[in-house]
Target: Dedicator of cytokinesis C/D N-terminal domain-containing protein
Amino acid sequence: FSFFNYLFVFFSRTVASEVRKQVTRDYGSPQLSKKRGGPHPPLPLTEVVEPVDFEEYVSSHAPGVEPGPLRQLMEFPQDDLELLQLEKECTTLEPPLPEEDSLDSRVRDALAVYTDDWLIIQRKYQRFSTMYSPHSSERQKERQRGLHKQTFELDEAAVAERQDDQDDAKRRSVSLDETPRGSWASSIFDLKNSSPDELLPSVLERTAPEDMDRHNTEARQQGRHSDLLGLYPPPDEDEAVERCSLPEAPKEHCGQRILVKCLSLKFEIEIEPIFGSLALYDVKEKKKISENFYFDLNSDQMKGMLKPHTPQVAISTLARSAIFSITYPSADIFLVIKLEKVLQQGDIGECSEPYMVLKESDSSKHKEKLEKLRLQAEQSCSRLGRFRMPFAWTAIHLFNIVSSVGGLDRSDPDSDSERKSHGTWNEKKKKGFERMSVGDEMCNFATFRPATLTVTNFFKQEGDRLSDEDLYKFLADMRRPSSVLRRLRPVTAQLKIDISPAPESPHYCLSPELLHVKPYPDPRVRPTKEVLEFPARYVYTPHTTYSFMKKPR
Model:
């Protein structure tokens, strides 16, 4: 029987669906129009409903002018919105705006958004809304602090019943021998000893309803709690009607910052000026995460060789300290140090050969050769002093400095371990790297012990390996023992640098746009540069500062 019912229902649904499809298909067809006897246009099955304009509806259906008990609930409070003006903090002494005076007025109005003060719209009665805020529970506890313990009538009745039961039990136990149980004498005794109730004359008197309402209103105002709804528990986060948190004023993003100071750079032979640059690279993301910071540690004698090309020296080019910002700390971040020299004729390998062969102790033996090299360097500086060529490079694994198992000796900056090759250093710390590869959560560049390093392992720059892809391969090999780095020819040099967490508000600091960052007491002091960061991943923060590249002067 159930099987036949199933077939009946199945065929009924099938036939009904086919009928609906047929009616829908024939609706509006010419044959159906002829049967209806008129050229009426077909009507759509569904009509689009226009949404209600809320503002127009509220303005056209304003509440009545006559007062009522629910008028305050129907209208919005007139003093709900408050406009507050918050002064925008400028971190630099100069406003971050272009210096051109011939800008269009519309462009200047558009740039005013970076200098105008913040206008905050605050709701006065927002605390009475149904929103959920993370601070709701804290405010609830603050309101309930100092309140008296609330006792309700139900609790008082239960306590009174228990007290009456105890009194009755004592009374019965005392008078059990004097009066018989349930006799009239015990009832008379209770009536005589009971106190009479207070009289309520207002019950017997006739009072007008208006006076009664006024009296009740005055009675409700007496002893009223200041925050009656404070006793009600705050709404649960899962059951909240809306979630709304007060946003903070937008501010420029700033990650974890480290301060790198370049102290000295020495070679076995000193024949020409050598320049250096610092940059951060993320091997895992295969991205360069900062711009280059160029520093000059040459002596006055070497700088004099380039004086015809640099008649005026900007104070921003004298910086030897840099502040790097790291938004996404990782165990794969390297500080890459590159050395450059003045452009010379010949191959890169041939130009760097004297630094790998000649020693300071052999200067007397190769005196004529050194004089010839100095003469060639002077000629190159006079003709091509504005141009540079790659010379050597090295890298520092920042995770070694941050972690407590780092391979760099912090107590003795001139230790022998720093003078060994990268291959020996990697072999010595292979097990340490395996233990430290637990994740990027161990990296915290904001709090670590400052370290002074003496870097002695520089590699000669190969002419056919100048791309970033080759650099990423070398950096990956530096984390593990590899024969690739052993094949690279070292350049004898000593670079002494200091790495430490950056202070909150450093003095004598220049922004990436070469603006003076507060505080900057004396403009003649050698500055510290803030290096522009290129985050490995996008940072979703508003741009509140106008950034432009300013030429050093």
Summary: Confidence is low (pLDDT under 50) at residues 6-11, 405-439. Residues 2-26 form the longest helix (25 residues). DSSP finds 18 helices and 16 strands in the chain.
